[in-house]
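Researcher: Go.
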Amino acid sequence: MRRHFLSWLGGSALGATLGGLPSLALAQKSARTLTVGIVPQQSASELARLWIPVLGALSERSRLALRFATAPDIPAFEKRMAAGAYDVAYMNPYHYSVFAQKPGYVAFAKEKGRRLRGLVVVRKDSAIKDMKELAGQQIAFPAPASFAATVLVRAEFERTGVPIKPVFVKSHESVYLNVVQRQFEAGGGITRTLEGMEPAVRNELRVLWQTKDYTPHAFAAHPRVAAADLQALKSAMFTADSDPRARSGLEGLGFKGFDPAQDAEWNDVRALGIDTLAALLRE
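Model: Structure:
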């Protein structure tokens, strides 16, 4: 039953209202609901396992019912973002640079103490020592518009004149599993999702190369979110690391907490002039 429920979260439905879970004190009908969309870097079941405890603690602190939501894969998440399906969303920096324009999401928070780097991983026992040795190989990537794991890594291959054959496997988790299982010689990822993999997978991988660092994923709100509700959520997030229950959930995510953020902090990403996503969303 639990497995079925969690897969449903990332499939036809958007998510589950945390206010309805018995462990929370938000069952009262008056609690306002915000749908929180999480970019599917991992499977829906794994995302639910990691994020629902955090959103539950934030629900209690903010007196809002925070509804966990995701999508079956990153391209589906992008289409839902374009349609404004989520009240609040956790998205990669490139997604934010696009969806801040339309439908107008506004960043208000980011992960505390984190900068974002793209990685190229190979098996720990791989003979590959240099990116140039991957010429002509199929390389696993999460999705075409995954900022650090795909866009930045592919840009490095192009900059150095190393031809590769990109294959998109839907999530960071799938990249790492496919490389460990020898389906691909290498794959693109990021530090946080690699660190979050179970040791049996993570310990079989080696970082071959990494990008420079950038402003990390954004927490951003749709313009329809009421100012009072957004302020309540901000207050809950920015003090979450002082709450034992919330801190436990954050540790599961590999987060130290949340920091306030402003739109201009993602200008480092805008300066790259990436226009990959516009064409993909028209397909």
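Model: The longest helix spans residues 44-62.
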